[in-house]
Design goal:
- Helix 2 crosses helix 3.
- By secondary structure, the chain is of the alpha/beta class.
- It is built from 8 helices and 8 strands.
- Strand 5, helix 5 and strand 6 form a beta-alpha-beta unit.
Length: 215
């Protein structure tokens, strides 16, 4: 259900980013993951399937919405506010170079809007343009981001958290071993991709992270 106004303290602390490998509707990695979420651990789930056309994105969002998810879980679609609104999911996540959230609210006012940022200046712009939360990274070394340069590190994460009133999610190599360090530096939560894609380890991984972010 869309939310008129999002209190940051009602946002889940853990954000799961989808695999980017959706192809067969009968064997959807995202739908399988959603069905295996632990009952009492709310998550924010970013549907990030850039290769899918509008029709298939809509169908995937609708199918995800029909699942009985843990209370407090939110579904967000990457970039496409039109599809997110039509499908009745909770929000949209925008890339750093994406359309300002305040512009999208003109026709989709009930959605939550997140934005990826990679600098303090980008965080300020995102906050001024109406974002509800930020993803910042990569904080740690991760193979998928090495082509973009060195990781930002914990010091830069702390500086950014201290310059914005928005909830900041640390992303990039974050796992149960280092998530506590991100929290100590001011991160509101964490986001990851491959960390959550092994269904056999999903419950255990989320339980470990939930203890870090809730205690």
């Amino acid at each position: 259900m869309c939310i008129e106004k999002q209190d940051k303290f009602s946002l889940p602390r853990i954000c799961i980013v989808s695999s980017g490998k959706e192809s067969d509707p009968e064997k959807s990695p995202l739908i399988s993951l959603l069905k295996h979420l632990p009952e009492m651990i709310p998550c924010m789930v970013q549907i990030r399937e850039k290769h899918l056309d509008a029709k298939h994105l809509f169908m995937l969002c609708r199918e995800a919405k029909e699942i009985d998810l843990p209370p407090g879980t939110l579904l967000l679609l990457n970039e496409r506010a039109d599809i997110a609104s039509a499908a009745g999911i909770d929000g949209v996540h925008l890339p750093e170079s994406g359309c300002p959230a305040e512009k999208l609210r003109a026709f989709a006012s009930g959605l939550i809007y997140g934005r990826s940022v990679h600098s303090i200046e980008s965080a300020r712009i995102a906050e001024d343009s109406g974002a509800d939360f930020l993803l910042f990274g990569p904080v740690f070394d991760t193979p998928s981001k090495r082509q973009y340069g060195k990781p930002q590190g914990l010091d830069q994460l702390e500086k950014l958290c201290n310059t914005t009133a928005l909830p900041v999610y640390a992303i990039g190599g974050v796992n149960p071993e280092n998530a506590g360090s991100c929290r100590e530096r001011g991160a509101f939560g964490m986001a990851a991709l491959s960390l959550f894609h092994d269904i056999t380890k999903l419950s255990r991984t989320l339980e470990l992270l939930d203890r870090i972010w809730q205690h």
